[in-house]
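User: Hi! I'm working on a homework problem where we have to compare a predicted structure to a textbook description. Could you give me the structure for the chain below?
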Amino acid sequence: MADVVELKAALVAALSPLDGITWKRMFGCDAVFYNDVIFALVWKAGRLGLKYTEPEDFAERMAHSGSDRWSPGGRTTKHWILIPSSVAESTSQLSGWARIAHATVL
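Assistant: Happy to help. Predicted structure tokens:
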């Protein structure tokens, strides 16, 4: 399990070029919003979650080894992916994945 403080710092850095995002606490974790719509979070279990509402974006990211459906409390979500640690640890990959998630809420 990754450290949630380090994960948040990585996500903050990846999202820094984007305007209009805000952070709030939701689901017991730090969540990222644009226009009051959530699109990213630092899951308390030590994973980053990103929301992909476009089926192609979702399928492409789920095909990556280490991607998991987010299932808080045993309930599988429709559009959320807990991203692989290899993506979370790569500034360039995380930026790309986060920008696509952000674009779905524009």
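For your comparison, note the following. The longest strand covers residues 37-43. The chain has four helices and six strands. Good luck with the assignment!
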